[in-house]
Fold:
Amino acid sequence: MRNPWLPIMLFFATQALLWSCKHEKVKNPVMTPVPCEVQDTLTYQGQIAPILSQNCFPCHVYPGSGGINIDNFTDVKAVALSGMLVQSIIHDTTYVIMPPPPQKLLDSCDVKRIKRWIQTGCKEF
Ligand code: HEC
Structure:
């Protein structure tokens, strides 16, 4: 039999999700330093998309929070080239810190990967 509470539960689940996408600016978050080997060639499909989907979804899937979409190559490349992608994950305080607390920040290794991907020309494949 169909659960009559389902629409109500879905409503609250959606509200909780939307609420979690609002956040306050917080200073001095701690990035976990982890030892790592970063490949010379990184690609969006290979290494970058998995990092982003794990850490930036569901807030930045179209229509993303703050007008930022991080769910496809073209938009990610644009955010990367604007400098905003790296600035937000290295917690440059002129940008809103991403991902917002209390969510775990990217570790130093993932940050290194994203920086190198941009330095090597934002390859898709
Ligand atoms: C819990 C939801 C959430 C997660 C997860 C999240 N963001 Fe955001 N992001 C937001 C919101 C909300 C804003 C708009 C912030 C504002 O304007 O105050 C935003 C804004 C941004 C901006 C624009 C920053 C600025 O100063 O204008 C960038 C870039 C960004 N996010 C990148 C990321 C990246 C990269 C990740 C993953 C590593 C991520 N976000 C994860 C909610 C999130």
Q: What stands out?
A: Residues 20-21, 23, 55-56, 59-60, 65-66, 68, 70, 79, 84-85, 88-89, 95-96, 98-100, 103, 106 surround heme C (CB under 6 Å). The chain is about 45% helix and 0% strand. The chain has a mean pLDDT of 87.
